[in-house]
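Re: iron/sulfur cluster structure - here you go.
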Amino acid sequence: MVKHISDRVAVMYLGRIVELGVAVDVIEHPQHPYTKALVSAIPVPDPDVERTRQRLVLPGDPPSPINPPAGCAFHPRCAHAVPRCRDAVPPLVPAGPAREAACVRLAEL
Ligand code: SF4
């Protein structure tokens, strides 16, 4: 639905934008690990595909937005987290044409 009604989208986690870009690009080619998990939860209106699709299930519960984790607030739930993810809040950096994402491991994932 979002890619049909939006030109651009911003994906937020605990009050911070983690990915920003053209809606169809973000939905079809998510780059931030949180966006990938969100997109994997979108149901597919084809029973055969829906039965076999892989969903990325995040461990744990979302932390409190009043007291977010240090560094990347997504690190307690991210399958790709490394120690440096806790050092500082990752800034949004270019991640393609008209695209930005906030992840220190963007080039590796
Ligand atoms: S910065 Fe680290 S914890 Fe945050 S999304 Fe990227 S890999 Fe995961």
